[in-house]
């Protein structure tokens, strides 16, 4: 008796081969999409990290300069896109009472001081006990500010005014403040610009260029409401400047906020 023996050749049928090809194709597409997604997310994370680093440096530069400003010299434009301040470079103690609005002494063009020197900068403004920005950005007499004259050679023992002046009040500690010309930070389009060397603007601060020299602080900014918001303090309480800037690049953006405290005590 003969038996029928079926021989197994170990091959694939056409259907099995097609099935394998389809599975491999699907796996390739899914795997490739996953890899692309991972790479894309990594690139976005790197870009956001770069934006945060760049923004942090900019915010620190702003805060550092604004903290070293004359008390009550900060003022913000109506739209919140510009902030102006008067850089403080030193101070001195004067030895005799200054003419002010209360004692009505005769105006003077200088005052003797305890000997002092300045580490950096040249004073262009002399201030005594300013309690509000309107007492600074004015040419009225009396006021809390007068342009500085020629101090001569350090060490100094006298503060020289640009002309005769009477102040609004004397400092309780008989201390006068020495400052540079005002500076201004403004958001112009997508850029943060610092303006300096434009002199004293006695009008209200606006978003228009004040002239002088402009320096690019940062670029690729996006509008995010008011960039600068000033919360006024009092003589014994610091003023707070809120800064809000959005840094953007290639579809990614990060919003950074900072609160800068500026002393108000003259």
TrEMBL record:
Membrane-crossing segments per the record: 12-39
Endoplasmic reticulum recorded as keyword: no
Alphabetized InterPro entries for the sequence: N_methyl_site (IPR012902), Pilin-like (IPR045584)
Keyword Transmembrane: yes
Domain of life of the native organism: Bacteria
SUPFAM superfamilies membership: Pili subunits (SSF54523)
Keywords recorded for this protein, A-Z: Membrane, Transmembrane, Transmembrane helix
Name used for this protein in its record: MSHA biogenesis protein MshO
Source species: Marinagarivorans cellulosilyticus
């Amino acid at each position: 008796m003969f038996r029928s023996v079926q021989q197994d050749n170990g091959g694939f049928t056409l259907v099995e081969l097609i099935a394998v090809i389809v599975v491999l194709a699907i796996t390739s597409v899914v795997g490739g999409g996953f890899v692309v997604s991972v790479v894309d997310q990594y690139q976005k994370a790197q870009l956001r990290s770069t934006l945060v680093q760049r923004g942090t440096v900019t915010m620190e530069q702003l805060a550092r300069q604004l903290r070293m400003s004359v008390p009550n010299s900060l003022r913000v434009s109506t739209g919140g896109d510009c902030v102006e301040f008067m850089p403080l470079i030193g101070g001195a103690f004067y030895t005799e009472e200054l003419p002010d609005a209360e004692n009505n002494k005769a105006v003077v063009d200088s005052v003797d001081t305890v000997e002092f020197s300045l580490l950096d900068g040249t004073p262009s403004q002399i201030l005594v006990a300013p309690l509000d920005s309107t007492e600074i950005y004015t040419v009225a007499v009396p006021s809390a500010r007068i342009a500085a004259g020629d101090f001569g050679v350090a060490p100094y023992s006298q503060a020289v005014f640009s002309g005769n002046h009477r102040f609004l009040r004397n400092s309780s500690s008989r201390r006068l403040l020495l400052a540079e010309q005002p500076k201004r930070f403004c958001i112009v389009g997508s850029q943060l610009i610092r303006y300096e060397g434009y002199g004293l603007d006695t009008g209200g601060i606006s978003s228009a260029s004040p002239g002088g020299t402009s320096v690019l602080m940062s670029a690729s900014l996006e509008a995010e409401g008011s960039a600068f918001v000033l919360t006024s303090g009092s003589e014994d309480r610091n003023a707070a400047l809120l800064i809000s800037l959005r840094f953007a690049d290639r579809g990614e953006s990060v919003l950074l906020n900072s609160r800068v405290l500026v002393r108000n005590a003259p």
